[in-house]
Design goal:
single chain; mainly beta; Lipocalin; 2 domains; eight-stranded antiparallel barrel; 12% helix; 49% strand
């Protein structure tokens, strides 16, 4: 609860400052013990990090019969990151998403998506990603190769990753925030041609390290 309150407070203060004139902020503008993230990966010191579910969004962008992209959100995700800023290529990542947590703004469609017609969540409750390699391309970008499993089928998938921010976080829990994008072929996992040729998986998340 304290972590959530601190996070909300930090966001609220940031919004107020921008509305007042957009002046640059420093950590002194935040509540005591709360530190703003930056672009220096070394600020997220080595250790085991876990996904912060309160600051995580997992989206699936699906083609809608050639007209647009439908966007679905999965509300429940968990994961562990083994991280060393001195050797990012040695990092490890394991993530699980509960497929029954899918949501849609189309009335009653979420239940249908989670059911036997599509995700078969009762039989396959989780979609998982386990990394096999990390590749750093520059100071804030990289790629993570891994094995993505959905409805019992496992295929190699690569996420393009962008660092959003790294820092001391709060409560002596360093944080690392990223934006990631991967593309899968829906037919590889048993989806009908109705889903088009590509599904985009978009992840925005923060990892936090235990003290």
């Amino acid at each position: 609860m304290l972590r959530t309150i601190a996070g909300v407070a930090a966001v609220f203060i940031s919004v107020v400052a921008v509305a007042a004139g957009g002046a640059a902020q420093s950590s002194s503008d935040l509540p005591p013990g709360v530190y703003r993230g930056g672009q220096n990966l070394a600020e997220a010191r080595a250790g085991t990090y876990t996904i912060d579910p309160d600051h995580t969004a997992v989206l699936a962008r699906v083609q809608h019969i050639g007209y647009a992209w439908l966007v679905f959100r999965f509300d429940k995700a968990s994961g562990t990151l083994g991280w060393d800023p001195a050797a990012p290529e040695k990092s490890t990542l394991s993530v699980a998403v509960q497929t029954a947590s899918i949501t849609s703004n189309v009335k009653d469609f979420s239940k249908q998506l989670a059911g036997d017609d599509f995700l078969k969540s009762a039989k396959f409750p989780e979609a998982t990603f386990v990394s096999t390699a990390f590749h750093r391309t520059d100071s804030t970008h990289g790629k993570v190769d891994g094995r993505f499993t959905l409805m019992g089928t496992t295929k190699p998938v690569t996420f393009e990753v962008e660092l959003v921010g790294a820092g001391k976080g709060w409560e002596d829990r360093p944080r690392l925030g990223v934006h990631a994008l991967a593309r899968i072929v829906p037919q590889d996992y048993g989806f009908p041609a109705l889903f088009g040729n590509t599904i985009e998986i978009v992840v925005d998340t923060e990892f936090e390290r235990a003290p």
